[in-house]
Write a structure and sequence with these properties.
about 280 residues; Rossmann fold; alpha/beta; 8 strands; globular
Length: about 280
């Protein structure tokens, strides 16, 4: 799979052993790179979720995109998926790939992991970008329930309905290949188990709003105004910390980096290059 094309760019898809499990990742390397950007996908997703954004990322950084343990095409062991497990996974993944002081971008579930990791390792990330991060919402929404249903009963119709509701319905056309890939991955052995076990772990860890003041890394939080999965009012929890800048994108649902990738990337690039 090729996500990006450039004469000064090389792309590789590899597997590596993390916590003794096979973990898939994609690495896009730039000539004379200024550092590393790590992308963490959301619940039930994979590295391919960033496919719409990557062609716009002309910044001179290496980009590393793992399939988080239990998801994508990484191994899905029959173990308890806990926040501690994901923290150990990130620790070992960063060490194995020799990633130091990266910029990290986390979407939804991935954003919740970024917050938790940064609280445990305050000086590790150079900058943080969070996209509709999980961890502050107390109750499930109807759209999130539909997404969970589509993961447990992965048919093309169920998945398409859920993805359409998660996006800004009137302005974004869902890519059929995304739907097919999601359905195929959720039919893999242990995929549903990993999904539900992770969901239970996240629900036990939904009090991050009380810890957000502790983040001291320069952080940008981006939310879609029409997000019906994790509603935009959750962004208010982040506004009390002077280290955090917030931005709401109009006519976007839960994944503005998919729905409006060019506009999203401009916000990200400006933030990375700023003194904030």
């Amino acid at each position: 799979m090729s996500l990006i094309s450039d004469e000064e760019t090389t792309e590789e898809m590899s597997f590596t052993k993390i916590l003794n499990y096979n973990i898939r990742y994609i690495k896009i390397s730039k000539v004379n790179s200024s550092g590393t950007i790590v992308l963490l996908h959301g619940l039930g997703a994979s590295a391919e979720r960033w496919a719409e954004l990557l062609p716009h990322m002309d910044i001179n950084y290496d980009i590393v995109i793992p399939d988080i343990i239990g998801f994508g095409y990484s191994e899905k062991p029959l173990i308890e998926y806990s926040i501690d497990l994901f923290m150990k996974f990130l620790d070992e993944f960063f060490k194995k790939l020799e990633i130091k002081n990266p910029i990290i971008i986390g979407s939804s579930f991935g954003g919740q992991l970024v917050i938790e990791y940064s609280l445990r390792n305050p000086d590790y990330f150079k900058k943080i970008i969070l996209i509709s991060p999980a961890g502050t919402q107390i109750k499930s929404t109807f759209v999130l329930s539909q997404y969970i249903f589509s993961a447990l009963y992965p048919t093309l119709d169920n998945a398409k309905r859920a993805f359409q509701m998660m996006s800004n319905n009137n302005h974004h056309q869902i890519n059929d290949s995304l739907i097919k890939d999601f359905v195929n991955r959720m039919r893999l052995p242990n995929a549903k188990y990993a999904y539900i076990s992770t969901l239970l772990a996240l629900r036990k860890n939904n009090d991050l709003k009380n810890k957000l003041r502790e983040i001291n890394t320069p952080t940008l939080v981006i939310w879609g105004r029409n997000d019906a999965t994790i509603p935009v009012n959750n962004i208010e929890y982040f506004k009390e910390n002077p280290s955090i800048k917030t931005c709401v994108m109009d006519e976007c649902g839960h994944t503005p980096f998919v729905e409006k990738p060019q506009e999203f990337y401009k916000l990200v690039k400006d933030f990375i290059e700023s003194e904030f």
